[in-house]
Amino acid sequence: MQILKRSTKILSSIFFSLSLTFFLFLFIFFKITSYENVKEIALPFIEAQLNLSKEQAELIVQYTKYQCENANETIINVGKNISLSCKEILSLKPENISNYIASKIFDSLYFEKYNCTLERCVKEKKMTYFISFEFNRFLGKALGYLLLTTILFGGIYLFLIEKPENKLLSLAVTFLSVSLPYFSFDVFPASLRKINNFEIPVAWLTKIKAELKFMRLFFFIGLAFLFLYFLFFFKKRGLFTKIK
Predict the structure, then answer these.
(1) Helices 133-160 & 164-178 angle (0-180, nearest 10)
(2) Separation in Å, CA 190 to CA 15, 98, 182
(3) How far apart are the two ends of the chain, measured CA to CA in Å?
């Protein structure tokens, strides 16, 4: 019976730590792949690729005016058809045309419909799937399941720990461990810059670190549990009485 209980405790501890770690990393990717964050990162790259001159921007305005005489929207082709609102584009200054078109291109990419599962999209090398609304929604659903798994294994693990001070110590170690990625993020910046010969843009790394800030809370929660553990440890052994 003791062997079974010990084995269950070890397994629940491992699964609790793993599920909590996966939950945190998945949450980070969920935040990074949100519309606002992906747009902030991708828009400058799209606009740079357009590279519209002042003359080209003015030609687009003239073309739009002609196309919008009897229509509410016009279509331009930039490798794919992009719909532009006549009301919006005609109210813009030529210097803002590039940013507006880049924003529309991004929207068409981010909200594109993918008729494939995660595995199939990877096999078909549809890498834009990973910066799409569909992928962000997939991560959101996965987070719900992971949260329930984490709570389940965490509850089982804490229930199997008999001594209160050991529960506090275990929680302290867990929270301090999962907070380490935030503090170790700048230790190996060179190795983080390349994955399979793909160099990660600095803007992405900055955004990832910004999203990791919430992990500082786990660090301070871990310290609080550690403080309570030592407080309980000293009180139980009467060390406070001896000091008096």
Answers:
(1) 160
(2) 31, 33, 16
(3) 44
Scan for tokens 């804490």, then name that residue.
158
Burial 161-179 (b: 16+ CB within 10 A, else e): beeebebbbbbbbbbbebb
Residue 57: how many CB atoms within 10 A of its CB? Answer: 20
Q: What is the pLDDT of residues 187-211, one digit of tens each?
A: 545 554 554 444 556 666 666 667 6
pTM given for the model = 0.74
The DSSP result for 41-82, as a single string, is: HHHHHHHHHH---HHHHHHHHHHHHHHTTT-SEEEEESSSEE
Helix (H), strand (E) at residue 126: none
Residue type, 150: T
- DSSP class of residue 163 equals S
Which residue stretches of the chain are H helix? 2-32, 35-50, 54-67, 86-90, 94-110, 118-123, 133-160, 164-178, 180-183, 189-192, 202-211, 215-236, 239-243
Tokens of 185: 């993020």
DSSP 117: -
